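[Automated response] Your request has been received and processed.

Submitted sequence:
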Amino acid sequence: MSNAVEEFLIAKNVPFESFTFDVSDEENGRAEAEKLQLAVTTIYKTLVLKGNKTGTVVALVPLDGRLDYKKTAKASGNRKVGFPPMEYVLEATGYPHGANTPIGIFMQHPDYVQIFDTSILAHEEVIVSSGELGHSVKVQVNDLLTLIAPIQADILSA
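Generated structure:
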């Protein structure tokens, strides 16, 4: 059964593959990714931040990546960005912590600033959340970039 993100991808003729992960803890998720022979480097997490000028900022970074606040602020047109309270994230995106998805947020809020770390360009396909805890989709990077048209910038800590 498809969720809203998958229905959107179908409607836009974007091919994808669905995955379900045990998200009870990070190690279980990594073990399942390895079992499915998925490179952890192709799994990207969606971070929701709040900028002092633009409001909500959505950043897509590798699962193992650490966000650099200064680089993200500069790329998003803000002086400062930071992680807001979980209540803000749910209210701003409609998704609970752990289920944020760049695709679903774009569907509901195409005006939000979205920034994808440039490391995404090293992959043909990536796995991102599909808007439900433990559910993800694998999509072609070019399709994701075309669909969302995010800012592409180096936003990782060195």
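Summary generated for your ticket: The longest strand covers residues 44-51. The beta strands are 16-20, 44-51, 55-62, 81-82, 113-117, 125-132, 135-140, 151-153.
If you did not submit this request, please reply to this message.
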